[in-house]
Amino acid sequence: MIKKILLAVALIFPMLASAQTLKVGLVDVNSIISLMPDTQQAQNKLAEVSKRYEDEYAKLGEEMKRLYDEVQKGENELPAIRERKLNDLQAFQAKVQQFEQTAQQDLANQQQQLMMPIYQKVQQAVTAYSQENGFNFVQVKEDQLVLYFADPVVDITNGVKAKLGL
């Protein structure tokens, strides 16, 4: 029994000793990204693309209204003519929905393509700063994720900003 207790203490003691030397850092990635010039350029590019899609969507809306007005005005049309106009309207609605889905997917893809190099720069800076300063573990600092923040945990956000020249 005593041997088991001594064995347990022998196994736990090194883990406790190494836990005391564990250096943990927190980094506010969002605040870093918001300060990077590349982020503003990416946001401007996305705004341009979004505006072009919005303009095209407005044109489609005008055409949709025109087709709808034709259907409304043609209530007294012959059944075949009215049916053709309804079919045209429905087909156009489907095209507008497809355009909207494609535009949303394209915007999401472009955002990912534009932001990926920015995220990679931040990741590289966090890694470099952490290695240079002996951090064993770095967690992203977000208010809803960090429940407790005290020594020996260190906020390394300013150090990473300096590494990036911000």
Q: Could you characterize what this model shows?
A:
The protein has 166 residues and is mainly alpha-helical. The chain is built from 5 helices and 3 strands; from the N terminus they run αβαααββα. It has helices at residues 2-20, 29-35, 37-73, 79-132, 157-163, and strands at residues 24-27, 137-140, 154-155. The chain is rod-shaped, with a radius of gyration of 29 Å. Mean pLDDT is 85; it is low at 1-13.
- The number of E-state strands comes to 3
Could you tell me the mean pLDDT?
85
User: Kindly, what is the distance between the CA atoms of the first and last residues, rounded to a whole number of angstroms?
Assistant: 60 Å
- pLDDT below 50 for ≥5 consecutive residues: which ranges? 1-13
Q: What topology, given as strand order, has the largest sheet?
A: 2-1-3
Oligomeric status of the shown chains? single chain
Query: What sequence of helices (H) and strands (E) makes up the elements?
Result: HEHHHEEH
The helix fraction, in percent, is: over 70%
Shape: rod-shaped
Q: What Rg, in angstroms, do the CA atoms define?
A: 29 Å
Which structural class best describes the helix and strand composition? mainly alpha
